[in-house]
Design goal:
This protein is mainly α and 272 residues long. It contains ten helices and no strands.
Length: 272
């Protein structure tokens, strides 16, 4: 019979295994691998995003104090604003304010690797929190949560990071429509992540749609990785890409526009 400490260690390791496996897979997909030290720092910064998120949550909840969180509008607010927008924004900050300024980020595939690393850093902490929290109920529940999240929430975070990185590729390396791509690098993963959470919270939507969403995301991210691997070959023969500076003013506009769009959606759902 295992003691409580042994069970905690086992479940903690189990919660981290899918994170490590996915990060290693993505890292090996890069034909010109990034320095492990930089990938680890990005991963660690992804974990660290939990601290500003926890500080901002009470402020956001103050704006929603008159909202019935058990209603569909409450579910939408929780899924798309309190969870998705907040979490994806701070992962986004890690990429644009740390990774994008590195000399090591010098070709498109790099943004995918760093996007996934930052997202999996957050996912590692979240996974550990959910699994150890479930352990207070029972070992069986904690084991179920660990296995379930290994095939749902953790891959979701990774794929959101990949999609974030994909649009950041276009914002950083392609001058045409780079502000639009900067907006999509945040808004696209926010919508995907929010939809996942909304399906879980809502009693109206069939939960099996989660697996359909994940299958679609696997196909999309596979196409993205294949495309950028081909671009790496093109870069190897034609020379380095040129990087463009991200417009900090538009960074603020991106967050504001995303918040306004989602807030309007909450308002509309609330009055229907």
């Amino acid at each position: 019979m295992f003691g409580s400490e042994s069970v905690l260690i086992y479940l903690s390791v189990a919660s981290l295994i899918p994170v490590i496996v996915i990060l290693f897979y993505v890292y090996k997909k890069d034909r010109f691998p990034e320095p492990p030290r930089i990938v680890f720092i990005t991963f660690a910064l992804g974990i660290a995003t939990i601290f500003p998120i926890l500080m901002i949550i009470p402020l956001i909840e103050g704006f929603a104090q008159n909202l019935n969180l058990q209603s569909e509008s409450g579910h939408f607010y929780f899924a798309f604003i309190r969870a998705s927008l907040l979490e994806e924004t701070f992962k986004w900050f890690v990429i644009i304010y740390y990774c994008a300024k590195l000399n090591e980020l010098n070709e498109p595939m790099d943004a995918l690797v760093y996007g996934v690393a930052a997202s999996l850093g957050f996912a590692a902490f979240e996974n550990f929190e959910y699994v150890t929290g479930s352990l207070q109920e029972s070992v069986e529940l904690a084991s179920t949560v660990a296995w379930l999240r290994a095939f749902t929430a953790v891959p979701l975070h990774a794929m959101c990071g990949a999609i974030m990185g994909y649009f950041l590729i276009k914002a950083i390396f392609i001058i045409k429509n780079n502000n639009l791509n900067l907006f999509l690098s945040l808004f696209a993963p926010v919508i995907i992540h929010g939809l996942y959470d909304y399906i879980i919270l809502s009693e109206v939507i069939v939960s099996e749609l989660i697996y359909l969403l994940l299958i679609i995301l696997v196909i999309v991210t596979s196409i993205i990785f294949s495309k950028e691997r081909r671009n790496q070959d093109k870069m190897f023969f034609e020379g380095q890409y040129s990087k463009y500076n991200i417009n900090n003013i538009f960074v603020g506009f991106t967050i504001l526009i995303s918040l306004v769009i989602l807030s309007i959606a909450v308002f509309i759902i609330n009055i229907l």
